[in-house]
What does this fold into?
Amino acid sequence: MSYAIIGFGSIGQALARAFARNNIEVTVASRRPPEALLPQAQAIGPRVIPGTLQEAVKADVIILAVLFEGHRDIGKLLADWKGKTVIDAMNTNDPVETLDNLPSSAFAARSFPGARFVKGFNHLLSRTLATDPKVEGGHRVVFLSSDDEAATAQVADLAKRLGFAPVNLGKFDEGGALVQARGRVWGPLIFQDLFKQQP
It folds into this structure.
């Protein structure tokens, strides 16, 4: 299984640290050329590999850590996203009317035809996401939602490998609405830093 993070700002770098802590190779890419990302990538760890956007979309699992308005451009990189799992770590302040009254993930998924689309890793501040999730005798929670149960299970497995405790909220328009930013009204679980105690 291959992994990529598209977007190498604060969220992208925080997620890259999670991969590095667990010795999992991940490609990182942004609109900047790979050589521009190299110093930050090397500072995080040797298994964080800068690449082009075209290289990043070859991965099996792709995390979107770009600004929400940039997702359409990423979606255009492939005509068919079949076989790809895309994790939406984005948030938006766009008025819900501009999203066709859909949860932001359901709206963004339209730009990735054929992809298995999962909301995840979007509710923690970057400085929190960057720290080791194994704390206070347990694991930091990450919320997941998707209209594809198998994709949610796949991303939950990845979250566990990265040291997090995944919580499945269900479909986008059901429990997933708890972590969907809608206009300037944030979902009730956005920015909640919760822990799951080890059994």
